[in-house]
């Protein structure tokens, strides 16, 4: 395994999304490193959060659920009430003007990235004026819901 794969799998032990780690790890998919330094880049990341026409913060498998980007969450932040306390707590803990984070993602069609970790931290960071360096370790595997159920939303896009 490469250094990036080793680091990805070490960090993956703490994620809460439904990634089938044994299956994904056995396939030895590549991991690439992407570094983001501006808020417009953050806004293009997909969170593993979903909304319908009438509701925000629904399960990925709710009828009519669609994935949202970080920018969508920021634009409608007041509608994501269940997430506020954790985001506020993290934002208040950011005590430096230079933030450096490493998070995990999954490679999506058309150069998109689905966050596997760090959603609340990214929202909190995007709400500040702090300079940052966000390192995203991106797993490049097939768009297969058996690996990650959230990927059902990208099957027709791949």
Outline the fold blueprint.
Elements: H1 3-12, H2 21-26, E1 30-36, H3 39-43, E2 46-51, E3 56-58, E4 66-69, H4 70-75, H5 81-93, E5 98-108, E6 112-115, H6 119-126, E7 131-140
Helix pairs in contact: 5-6
Entry summary:
With 158 residues, the protein is α+β, with helices and mostly antiparallel strands. It has helices spanning 3-12, 21-26, 39-43, 70-75, 81-93, 119-126; strands at 30-36, 46-51, 56-58, 66-69, 98-108, 112-115, 131-140. The protein has a four-stranded mixed sheet with strand order 1-7-5-6. It has a three-stranded antiparallel sheet with strand order 3-2-4.
Could you describe the 3D structure shown?
The chain is an alpha+beta fold. It has one domain. The chain contains 6 helices and 7 strands; from the N terminus they run ααβαβββααββαβ. Strands 1-7-5-6 form a 4-stranded mixed sheet. A 3-stranded antiparallel sheet has the order 3-2-4. Strand 2 and strand 3 (56-58) form a beta hairpin. Helix 5 (81-93) packs across helix 6 (119-126). It is globular, with a radius of gyration of 15 Å. The relative contact order is 0.23.
Low-confidence stretches: none
Largest sheet: 4 strands, mixed
- Give the strand tally: 7
Series of secondary-structure elements, N-terminal to C-terminal: HHEHEEEHHEEHE
Question: What is the number of helical segments per DSSP (H or I, 4+ residues)?
Answer: 6
Give the tags:
7 strands, three-stranded antiparallel β-sheet, alpha+beta, globular, 158 residues, 30% helix
């Amino acid at each position: 395994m490469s250094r990036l794969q080793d680091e990805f799998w070490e960090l993956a032990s703490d994620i809460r999304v439904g990634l089938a780690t044994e299956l994904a790890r056995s396939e030895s998919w590549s991991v690439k490193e992407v570094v983001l330094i501006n808020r417009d880049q953050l806004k293009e990341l997909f969170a593993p959060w979903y909304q319908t026409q009438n509701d925000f913060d629904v399960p990925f498998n709710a009828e009519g659920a669609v994935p949202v980007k970080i920018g969508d969450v920021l634009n409608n932040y007041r509608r994501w009430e269940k997430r506020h306390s954790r985001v506020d707590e993290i934002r208040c803990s950011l005590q430096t003007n230079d933030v450096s984070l490493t998070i995990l993602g999954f490679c999506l069609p058309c150069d998109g990235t689905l966050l596997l970790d760090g959603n609340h931290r990214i929202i909190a960071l995007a709400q500040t004026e702090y300079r940052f360096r966000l390192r995203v370790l991106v797993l490049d595997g097939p768009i297969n819901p058996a690996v990650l159920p959230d990927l059902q939303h990208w099957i027709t896009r791949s």
